[in-house]
């Protein structure tokens, strides 16, 4: 049975890092760009986000520590993937989130025009995630041709992306720079999943969706239970290191009224926060390897621990459990401990090296002193 979709959207997220010495210039450049405007959290307008996050986390995400730029196109950017199948889509929103540490995120929201066919969503997500690939032959998907005044073709879109992300420090940190992370929402018709149709009947569709597989994938895969988050009867979130995917049904009215908005606001920022923690720990890990920066890196690490790591994110029950699930998927606790242990090793090695140099210097001084004493003694004997 072919799945019919009621509503969908997909955010494609690309993390990138700006050098410390270039950060202010980059923010000034974005501020001067007429196509972008600085987004500020307004308590009245964004009351749900404001209430969701606790003060320390809210300050981290929406204060002077973070700059959020919103791209405002003249109209929705329309595109088309694969002339034969004709998957049309729009780009209604592009945001750039930059933390003062230089860690930034390019976030592109896409919506498929002919979204009713679930296969289109599978094929679109599968293809679009690789659009940033630098290789000339994009083997993982057919040629993408965008039909819009803003982006004439794939190269135009790629150039737009490259102008935003630059070169920076991204490749020096352990990040995949050839693929977008995917944050997707879909709500299918209750005729496929509801009181009269069990989830097991569409389980393979869910697996394809959460693993970014194309519609014609014929391999039968099993669900990894530890990657699924579900606190609702007719909605499940698949979480992995390549993305987060909400799969829901119109059997619950909440799934196409309240949940879509919450998922692309409160839960999206929760996801971004965990990505930030992961990338920052990798960034600090690289700095620990540089002898000249080890003390500075340690200071940053302690500040990160106090201000970010131990800060409670939200009191929202589902939000707290989702945050923990994402954190566990990213193995943040393990990464934090590894970085802390590596600092101890690097610091001890540095002290041992310093101790060796000091010992050698003292030995040389003693030898020189001994030589002078011998010379003086011989001179006295000659007298």
Summarize this structure as a short list of keywords or feature phrases:
43% helix, 21% strand, alpha+beta, elongated, eleven-stranded mixed beta sheet, 11 strands, 383 residues
Summarize this structure briefly.
With 383 residues, the chain is an alpha+beta fold. The chain has helices spanning 23-32, 47-52, 55-62, 118-128, 154-165, 203-210, 259-263, 266-288, 294-309, 317-329, 332-382, and strands at residues 5-17, 36-39, 66-71, 77-81, 87-99, 103-112, 144-145, 181-188, 228-232, 235-240, 243-249. 32% of the residues are buried.
Query: DSSP helix count?
Result: 11
Low-pLDDT runs of 5+ residues are 136-141, 143-149
Elements, N to C (H/E): EHEHHEEEEHEHEHEEEHHHHH
Tell me what portion of residues adopts beta-strand conformation.
Answer: 15-25%
Assign a percent range to the helix content: 40-55%
Cα-based radius of gyration, to the nearest Å:
27 Å
Tell me the distance between the termini.
Answer: 113 Å
Largest sheet: 11 strands, mixed
Overall domain count? 1
Q: What general form does the structure show?
A: elongated
**What does the average pLDDT come to?**
84
- SSE-based structural type: alpha+beta
Instruction: Give me the count of strands.
Output: 11
